[in-house]
Amino acid sequence: MPDSSQVKDARRCSVECGTPPLRHFSQSSLALPRNSQSLRTFCTEHNMQECLSYIKQEVSLLSLSPFWTELDDDSQLNVVAVLNCMYDLIQLHHRSLRTLENMEMEQLKLSSYVDNLKTNNTHLKEEVELSKRQNTGLLERERQLHLKLKSLQSSLKNEKDEVQKLQNITSSRACQYNHEMKRRERELNKLRERLNQLLADKKERKQTIDLLNNLGRADGKRSLWKTEKTEAKHEEEMYRTLLSDYELRQRELALENKELRKVMQQIKKEMVSILKSRKLALKEEKQELNGMQTASDDEENEVFDSSKESLELFCIHAREKLTNSIRLQWRRLKSHVEKLDSQGVDDVSREEKEEMDRLKLEIQQCKDFIQTQQHLLQRQLSSPIDQDSASLQNDGLMLQEKMRLSEEWKSLEEQRRIFERERRNYTEAAIRLSHERKIFEEDRALWLKQQFLSMSPFGNSNQPHLLKSASALLITETEVGSLNASEMPHECQSVLVSQKSRSVSLTSSSTDDLESALCLIPENGSSEHRKSELFGDFNSLHENVPLRRKQWKESKDLSSHSLSEENSTA
Amino acid sequence: MNFSEVFKQSNQLCKVSPDGKYLATCVQYRLVVRDISTLQILQLYTCLDQVSHMEWSSDSLFILCAMYKRGLVQVWSLEQPDWHCKIDEGSIGLVSSRWSPDGRHILNTTEFHLRITVWSLCTKAVSYIKYPKACQKGIDFSTDGSYMALAERRDCKDCISIFVCDDWHLLRHFETETQDLAGLEWSPNGCVLAVWDSCLEYKVLLYSLDGRLLSTYSAYEWSLGVKSVSWSPSSQFLAIGSYDEKVRILNHITWKKIVQFEHPAVIENTKTVYKEVEKRPAEVRDEFSLHNVTMDSTLFSTQSKYEICSLPVQIPAVKPDPDRANPKIGVSVLAFSSDSRYLATKNGDFQVQSLKWHCNGDSVILLGKEQLCLCYMDTEQEEKLNS
Fold first, then answer.
1. Within the 51-80 window of chain A, which residues sit less than 8 Å (CB to CB) from chain B?
2. Residue among A234, A231, A207, A194 nearest B127 (CA)
3. Three-state secondary structure along A313-361?
4. What is the pLDDT of residues A208-250, one digit of tens each?
5. Which superkingdom does the taxonomy of this entry point to (chain B) (predicted)?
């Protein structure tokens, strides 16, 4: 549509007028003739009203004085007003141009200012950098100076200390010198006095020696004249002592050297052997250049071993070689040991692990074993529990019985022992008794024989005894007994003693003696009653002879019993 | 331990004869000789004045009694009590007197060390040695008695003369490189002479028997130097004790220091430390004793006993007076045991005057002013003994 395009064009134009670049504005914006055609095309004869209304609108917007009268529909344009309006518009335009110029100026100024500022900024930044660097430099210097200061202070302190020490030394030395000086001065004074005294002293006491008699020399030899020979001898003596001392020392040193060399060789041998073994082990593990080295080492060792044996090792070269080789070996050994240490830790740990595993396995096995054992035991225990509890009780009873039995057994054993003892004693006593009985019988026989032999056909005191045959015998017996009473009691006493029975006094009459003697055997110390019985029976010999004999026999039996009883009671 | 009765003596002159059979004591002007086993008086001699110095001859046959004030020396014989010998030095005076190793010559040093007169008891002959030096130890005889070393000073220089004791023939005479020779000592094997300078300079020189300088040793400069020197009986070691409280030991092959012992104020790394504790009625005074020393209580009025201190032990250090010469610091006494295994040292200001080892090397005797202590060394146990 042409109107819209015209309006558009006008708009575009105004826009173009409003926003062209500042620089070009003065040239292009005012170049109306370029856009004059578009202006003309804005308003044509056809769209006058619209253009007029539009212009009116714009003018009113711009708050210019209206140039139309609104009374008419025909809108008669007030030419003066239009001119005024046009003038206003031109004024406006100028004004806007001026402001535009101003603004451009401002903008230029500002841009230059900004540029200036930018350059300033960069300058200042550079300056800041520079000053920072300077600052760090200065800090560094300051630190160094501080250090220097500290060191200087410490050295100053040292110097001060040294000065102090030197002062002390000088003071002590001065003290010493003064002391020495004083001493010498005193000595000098003494000398002077002495000199004066000597000069003044008329009589000079000479040195004398007063010996009763000359002594012999300590070694008994005669002293020699002092000649060159003696002097030479002295020199010789002196040199001889020195030489002997040197020789002794040299010998000692040589011995020491030998010892040390031996030790060194030993060490070397051992090191070589160790290294060889280690090298073999290493070879197994890894094959490296070590092989080459070991070969060379072995060669060297071999060479040196042979040389060692052949050479005396007194020359410096050999000694050096030995020491160098030892050093080398030692270094190698050290490195090997270090390597092995690092390895060995692993080895050790491995070994430890193995050990631990083994132990764990063992523990496990033992545990299993214990568990099975426990199971079995429980089963065993549980199975009797299923049975009667009486069995348990029985067990208990059995135990008790067992204990009792053992006790009884013990007591029985004891009794057996006692019985044995008694039996032994009894047998001994019986043996003794038999012996004594034998002896007694023998004595009796002897006595009877004697009596019989001594018996004479002519009567005497003994006759009445013989008439009564039975009694005679007995009387003779009694006499015998009386005669032997003295003997008997000894035997009986001994029997007594052996039987540990009470001794009976044998001071009564002959018959009593006999009786007592006869009764001593049955005497058992237990019952006087029996004794009294036996004693009581003695009054009538006749009757009691066989009885007595019987009694004697019985008593003998009794005695044996009593013996046993006695022993049992003992 | 049994004690004999107390015998009188004067001037600490009480000596056992070299053969160990007799004991000689001086009481004022009398000389008493006793048999050592019975302590019976065997001989009694009277001298002309109070005896200042008494010495046995090496063969135990004669005794020398010197009276310095009178300038007299009297010699007595044990075998022949009637025999007498009197040496009068006359107006020249007497400062010291000693036997020669053969027991037949007497060396008298005159006053002001003007000369040494050698009197021969065999021939009544006299020899003179000029310009002997008056120092700490200016004369020394070698162990076998064949040589004598004498320090001399001529023309402001120190020198040493070596004489053959047989006939007093001058064997060697040489200058030493010392500033002020303080002492000399033969090594036990008689081949090396150790010479040391005064305390102002630490310098130890070693000369061989024929006068050659073998080696010089100087541990430090300027501070006070050597205080005491001792050879080991095997001649292998030379121990030097100095004012810096250290002992340095040189070996006889290279004459270089092999070891150095210190005497620190705080003892930390020894085996045992015994401390003598004295209990006096008035005050309690503590005296510290040396390393490896055993102890016991005394029988006398001041009870002192030793107790084992736990390490570390602090030794009381006495600061020496800076204005006085010869300060009482440093290692003053050294003693090697007879097998050269042990070395006993005394450092500082302790009241120990001498240390002597027994010849079998397992006990050492400490002599103090009023007490003495016998110390037995044992690897297993340490026994105690007192006196």
1. none
2. A207
3. CCCHHHHHHHHHHHHHHHHHHHHHHHHHHHHHHHHHHHHHHHHHHHHHH
4. 888 888 877 777 777 777 788 888 888 998 999 999 999 999 9
5. Eukaryota
Query: Which amino acid is it at A301?
Result: N
With CB atoms and an 8 Å threshold, state whether A172 touches B224: yes
How far, in Å, CA of B108 to CA of B85, rounded? 14
* A382/B contact by beta carbon, under 8 A: no
Q: Nearest chain B residue to A191 by CA: give it.
A: B112
Using CB atoms, which residue from A205, A218, A241 is nearest to B209?
A241
Chain A: residue whose CA lies nearest to B102: A218
Give yes or no for A169 touching B (CB within 8 A): yes
* Cα separation, B289 vs A533, whole angstroms: 100
What would the CATH number be for the domain defined by B1-130?
Answer: 2.130.10.10
Q: What is the mean pLDDT of each run of 10 residues along chain B (387 residues)?
A: 80 88 90 90 91 92 92 91 89 90 92 91 88 91 93 92 90 92 93 92 93 92 88 91 90 90 75 65 34 32 68 74 79 83 78 79 77 68 34
| Residue spans per domain, chain B | 1-130, 266-314
Instruction: Using an 8 Å CB-CB cutoff, list chain A residues near B82.
Output: 212
Mark yes or no for CB contact B122/A214 under 8 Å.
yes
Q: How far apart are CA B293 and CA B297, in angstroms?
A: 13
**From B85, B93, B189, residue closest to A245, measured CB to CB:** B189
B248 touches chain A (CB under 8 A): no
Amino acid at A148: K
Which residues numbered 109-128 in A keep a CB inside 8 Å of some CB on B? none
CA distances from B383 to B1, B276, B374 (A): 13, 16, 10
Q: DSSP letter string over A32-56?
A: HHHHHHHHHHHS-SSSHHHHHHHHH
> What region, left, alpha or beta, does residue A156 occupy, with left being phi > 0 and alpha being psi -120 to 50 degrees?
alpha
In one-letter notation, the amino acid at residue B13 is L
Reported residue count of chain B is 387
Rg (CA), chain A: 80
Backbone angles phi, psi at A457, to 5 degrees: -65, -25
Phi, then psi, of A242 in degrees rounded to 5: -60, -45
**Which chain A residues are Cβ-neighbours of B84 within 8 angstroms?**
210-212
Q: How far apart are CA A442 and CA A234, in angstroms?
A: 115
> Is the Cβ–Cβ distance between B153 and B165 less than 8 Å?
no
Full-prediction pTM beyond 0.80? no
